[in-house]
Amino acid sequence: MPMLEWAYRLGPWRGSDLVWLTTVWLARRGPHWLAQGRRLPGRGPGRGEGMTAVLMRIPAHPVAARALVRRKLASWPVIGTRVYVGCPIGYPAMLDAVAATGGDPRLRIVVIDSPDMPDRAGCLDRLYAALEEDERRGRFRARFIVLDDEGDQAAN
Where are the strands (E) in the chain, listed by range? Predict the structure, then answer.
């Protein structure tokens, strides 16, 4: 049974009760859990190579798209990061705006074969296909993937 499932069945709990309960659980189970040296499968020293892939859908407005891509590149200053940006082919002003962000080698512009702005799922599918294509070509291996939805928030 999960740690707090039985606690919720007993009735209403105050926040301090749950903090106390969590502290007691960690005091009893934490040392045993740490002593086992649990690691995620396939992880450990020397196995953390790979890049971070950030998949982002950008808004249709060119000025907002340029600002969003610049802000995203500034917020991920790590060299081992690749930012995939999806731009539909029917928006040449947006393609020009994203391309004018400074020629950062971490930026990969993915042209989506759609005259209109695709929905979130269609855009992410195309960005993920571009990521898989880069991995197949041997450019890099993605260690983890970040699905960024800031473009959706800016578009709404």
Answer: 51-57, 81-88, 107-112, 142-148
- pTM higher than 0.70 for the full model? no
Residue in 80, 84, 90 with CA at minimum distance from that of residue 58: 84
In 3D, which of 65, 54, 27, 52 has the Cα closest to residue 152?
A: 65
The b/e string for 96-123 (b: 16+ C-beta within 10 A; e otherwise) is ebbeebeeeebbbebebebeebbeeeeb
- Percent of the chain surpassing pLDDT 70: 69
Mean pLDDT of 40-60: 66
**Class at the top of the CATH hierarchy for domain 51-155:** alpha beta
Query: What are the start and end residues of each CATH 3.90.550.10 domain in the chain?
Result: 51-155
Question: Is residue 70 a contact partner of residue 101, using CB atoms and an 8 Å limit?
Answer: yes
Between CA 114 and CA 116 the distance in angstroms is 5
Give 117's DSSP letter: P
